[in-house]
Design goal:
This protein has about 110 residues and is mainly alpha-helical. Helices cover about 75% and strands about 0% of the residues. The mean pLDDT is about 90.
Length: about 110
């Protein structure tokens, strides 16, 4: 399920026409790191890993859709950021990557 969600995110990024090639490259790189970090997390915290990838998918959808809704983008990004609360000590790289994804997607939604 987690891998399917990550694949959907990748498809959303690749098919988004409003994203510059540079932003796509950055998001692909961030997604690759997210895959690794979520993979590690899922070994001990499966439900949290599913939540993180779910919010990442919704956030990517909101940031890349044709008619953007700033309120929905903000809500999805807030959910994504909140999904990693509590992992600062045990998975600091995951928190860092999620924060970078939030920042990048927020800049696309403007």
């Amino acid at each position: 399920m987690i891998q399917d969600t990550l694949n959907k995110i990748e498809t959303q990024i690749e098919s988004a026409g409003a994203i510059t090639p540079e932003n796509k490259a950055e998001l692909r790189e961030l997604l690759a790191t997210l895959k690794s970090e979520v993979g590690q997390l899922s070994q001990t915290h499966t439900e949290q890993a599913q939540t993180i990838t779910g919010f990442a998918q919704v956030s990517t959808h909101e940031a890349t859709r044709g008619e953007k809704n700033p309120q929905l983008l903000k809500l999805s990004l807030d959910g994504l950021a909140a999904s990693v609360n509590g992992f600062e000590q045990t998975h600091p790289r995951l928190v860092e990557i999620v924060n970078r994804i939030c920042t990048t997607l927020a800049s696309l939604g403007v």
